[in-house]
Specification:
The protein has 460 residues and is an alpha/beta fold. 33% of the residues lie in helices and 20% in strands. It has 16 helices and 19 strands. Helix 7 runs parallel beside helix 11 and helix 9 packs antiparallel against helix 12. The longest helix has 19 residues. It is elongated and about 80 Å long. 49% of the residues are buried.
């Protein structure tokens, strides 16, 4: 896989991006031989079509990529990537047809289409390389692609090789790459550090729980990212059925997402004081596992009744959020594969988020539309607050009834942030079926939108 554009060169094959609406007009300016070749090969400009037009000496005179119709493009993302994966080996440069306002997104899609997860099985690399289109910030796009690919690879790696120590190693490697500072609190030291719920969730696993704390940057607004790092989730004593456990290697998708976003921020030298907090645990079954009806006292002092050990993500996030809030940063953002209710509400493609800050919402949604990274706002609905108050303790980690599960989870988390602006993302972190530039498997969600919106979100 490659996160780099091809170097400009005179031998790069001209690539014409042709929609079903523009093909006929473009053909009028071509030779009879070219028109006949295109007709004979059935090229209509549909999304996913590609065609090489040969030159006089068996060379590639030009290449064509189908761009569909506006309606078809609105039903998906990264239309150009669908053709890119079908082109033969070579370097290509955009010669015509790609709208300037779509050039950056389509160029990113081309790079993302090259992603292959080949740690355990060799994969055929993508043969076609793109020269960065005129007018785009090629270096920035390459950084975004690298951040997204980091997220994908972390999620795709099975728990056998992506437990809490491995997630720590990935964070340390990223810190080393960018000169960030990192501290990790592990095992029983979590108790002494007043991070009791992280310890309680992870204590049953052979691989010790930990809190990863990474810092970068000395100037600018303070941004703290908190990512759920449940490296595998059995459900604990409330054991998941097999069908529900099959994808639980992705339950550290929030951690993977914030690390990918952190790469984007650090690699571009963004003027931000960045902090990344990742509670990394396995929710396992053992004699000392967390039990239903246990009551935990959190870092913030709030007590939590455990009514389902499979609602563990909010517990580890709560301690990390309380720690983050103590510094009163300009913005706290949590990202987590937190609830099935979010998937029922919006499906796998949208990233639902919670924020009561109108400026944050406007900046995020404007950016999300511009960079083809869809999000959907959900409410911190205050009348549901009683649902997370069990009576015997301050909070209930798993309200009964099944209604509004993603909202009650977000309300639970918000109880631990009282000094800082806060937004929460309940992402899926997984692409269930392959799509252009998005193979089946781990996926980043909302990180490109957040990265594009940071300046507006954090504007003092």
């Amino acid at each position: 896989m490659s996160t780099q554009f091809a170097a400009p060169s005179s031998d790069a094959v001209p690539l014409h991006v042709l929609s079903e609406d523009t093909l006929n007009a473009w053909l009028e300016d071509q030779t009879d031989a070219t028109r006949n070749w295109i007709a004979a090969n059935g090229f209509t400009g549909a999304i996913g079509q590609s065609l090489i037009v040969p030159g006089e000496t068996n060379s590639m005179a030009m290449a064509l990529a189908g761009y569909g119709t506006a309606t078809q493009r609105a039903r998906g993302r990264f239309a150009l990537a669908a053709s890119a994966v079908k082109l033969p080996q070579g370097n290509y440069r955009i010669a015509s047809g790609l709208p300037s306002d779509a050039a950056a997104t389509e160029a990113l899609g081309w790079l993302l289409a090259s992603y292959r997860f080949d740690r355990y099985k060799s994969a055929t690399p993508m043969a076609a390389a793109l020269v960065a289109p005129d007018g785009v910030d090629a270096a920035r796009i390459e950084v975004i692609a690298a951040g997204e690919m980091l997220t994908r690879t972390l999620i795709n790696t099975p728990a056998s090789d992506m437990g809490p120590p491995d997630l720590e190693a990935a964070a340390r490697a990223l810190a080393d790459e960018h000169g960030a500072r990192i501290e990790v609190t592990t095992g029983d030291a979590l108790i002494g550090a007043n991070l009791p719920m992280i310890h309680a969730v992870g204590r049953a696993a052979d691989r010790a729980p930990r809190l990863i704390d990474m810092r970068w940057g000395d100037t600018g607004p303070a941004l703290t990212l908190v990512g759920k790092g449940v490296c595998f989730d059995t459900g604990g004593l409330n054991l998941k059925p097999g069908a529900s456990m099959g994808l639980m290697k992705k339950d550290m998708g929030g951690a993977a997402a914030v690390l990918g976003l952190a790469h984007m921020i650090m690699a571009t030298g963004t003027n931000i004081r960045l902090r990344v907090l990742i509670p990394a645990v396995e929710n396992s079954v053992s004699a000392n596992a967390l039990r239903p009806q246990d009551i935990l006292t959190s870092r913030k002092g709030l007590t939590v009744e455990i009514n389902n050990t499979d609602a563990e993500g909010r517990l580890v996030l709560a301690d990390a959020l309380a720690l983050a809030d103590e510094e009163k940063p300009d913005q706290i953002i949590s990202m987590a594969t937190l609830t099935g209710a979010a998937r029922v509400a919006v499906g796998p493609d949208l990233a639902p988020y919670f924020s009561d800050d109108a400026g944050f919402v406007t900046a995020l949604e404007t950016a999300a539309a511009a960079v083809a990274d869809p999000v959907w706002r959900m409410p911190f609905h205050i009348p549901y607050e009683p649902m997370i108050e069990p009576g015997i303790a301050d909070l209930d980690n798993a309200p009964k009834g099944g209604f509004a599960g993603c909202i009650t989870a977000a309300l639970f988390l918000r109880r631990f942030v009282t000094n800082s602006p806060y937004a929460h993302f309940d992402i899926y972190g997984w692409q269930p079926t392959a799509a252009p530039a998005r193979p089946k498997g781990g996926a980043g969600q909302a990180t490109r939108a957040l990265f594009a919106a940071l300046d507006d979100m954090l504007d003092p």
